[in-house]
Amino acid sequence: MKPHRRKKLGIILFIATGLSVAIGLSLYALSSNIDLFFTPTQVAAGEVTPGQRIRVGGMVKEGSVEHNQEDLQVRFIATDYSHDVDIYYSGILPDLFREGQGIVVEGAMGADGTFVASRVLAKHDENYMSPEVKAALDAAELQRSMTQGGT
Amino acid sequence: MWLWFSKLGSPRWFYELSSKWLPWLYAAMAILGLVGLTWALLFVPEDYQQGETIRIMYVHVPVASISLACFPLMAVAGTITLVWKMKLADMVAKCAAPIGLWFTGLALATGAIWGEPIWGTWWAWDARLTSMLIQFFLFIGVVALRSAIESPDNAAKACAVLSIVGAINVPIIKYSVEWWNTLHQPSSDYSMDPVSPNPPEVWVPLFIMICAVYVFFVITLILRTRNEILVRERRSQWVKDLVARA
């Protein structure tokens, strides 16, 4: 490579590296603002001021969903398996909403410690498979836990 | 190796060689596209959570992955333009920008169509979606910058710099789902086991679709570049001969 080209390439690489480091550091500094939602653990740690509009993300706790019989009001618990948040919501839930499903709720913390949601979004994971494969996996899981319970 | 490198930089050489590649690429795209689309739309089993909606993935993932590949391609071409002043590299960079813009737009659109029924929203300001939107604007910026500067040499330099700087966004898009918590799910792992999450019946057709769309991207890029070569080299003898023969 000719010297003047080597020099030019060096300058380009130097600037690109410098910019990457600068952008990387700013993103690192902003990381809590870039997160889409607070986890129940962060809510329990008091990182959330009541009344402030935020999003909370977690799993719908098994057996926690209580539908009101007359209207669309629903109460459930969002959990990250170490802390829980009580959620109140009145409106139409996404199709994917079910117990054990990942969700993101938008709203504000009430004074009584219940999160009043104005919107519920469903999250799904990166595992795709047919219902048959899922059933086969669940059956294998059940068998494993039963044989472990027996011994 | 250096001889080959400088030969590849010759527009005439590329024009003649790409004429030989194109029929093969057309055939590959027809076969891959036909097999991939039929398989993905008719024979992939429905998802245990998402049902038939999962088929959107077979378009969304290929266009998104190509839109992510396009910016680094422009950055490499831009570096070659700045350092070695190779004419062909700048032509490729110029022709890739509008294609990348379209693919980014398609990725955003198919993502919104997928998000509405499954997440319950068209759009969320999460890290993946937002960084992808930034890439969309960066592509618009590169295309606009190219047409805003009258002198082709200056436009080439300015676009090369913007492409190199903008390529920093690509790893941010790629790892956004791991670095921050997002509504968008992380990348899937492939599994060879038919009874496991992401079994071959799910990812083999996806892989075929990704190849098909990649070939489509390469064909479009070659066709646009050949056009650009003819326009820029219109005063050279070989183009005049070519036109006279046609």
Write the layout of secondary structure elements.
The complex is a heterodimer of chains A (about 150) and B (about 250).
Chain A: H1 3-29, H2 31-34, H3 40-44, E1 53-60, E2 66-67, E3 73-79, E4 84-90, E5 102-109, E6 114-122, H4 131-150
Parallel strand pairs in A: 4-6
Antiparallel strand pairs in A: 1-3, 1-5, 2-3, 3-4, 5-6
Chain B: H1 2-8, H2 11-43, H3 57-84, H4 87-118, H5 127-148, H6 152-166, H7 169-179, H8 200-232, H9 237-245
Helix pairs in contact in B: 2-8, 3-4, 3-6, 3-8, 4-5, 4-8, 5-6, 5-7
Structure explained in plain terms:
The complex is a heterodimer of chains A (151) and B (246). In chain A, a hairpin with a 5-residue loop joins strand 2 and strand 3. Chain A has helices at 3-29, 31-34, 40-44, 131-150; strands at residues 53-60, 66-67, 73-79, 84-90, 102-109, 114-122. Helix content of chain A is 37%, strand content 27%. Chain A has 151 residues and is of the alpha+beta class. Chain A has a five-stranded mixed β-barrel. Chain A folds into two domains: 3-32; 36-122, OB fold (Dihydrolipoamide Acetyltransferase, E2P) (Beta Barrel), CATH 2.40.50.140. The model of chain A has no long low-confidence stretch (mean pLDDT 87). Chain B is mainly alpha-helical and 246 residues long. Chain B has one domain (24-43, 57-245). Helix content of chain B is 77%, strand content 0%. Chain B contains nine helices and no strands. Chain B is globular and about 60 Å long. The relative contact order of chain B is 0.16. The mean pLDDT of chain B is 92. Classes of the chains: A alpha+beta (151), B mainly alpha (246). The interface between A and B is large, with 41 and 43 residues.
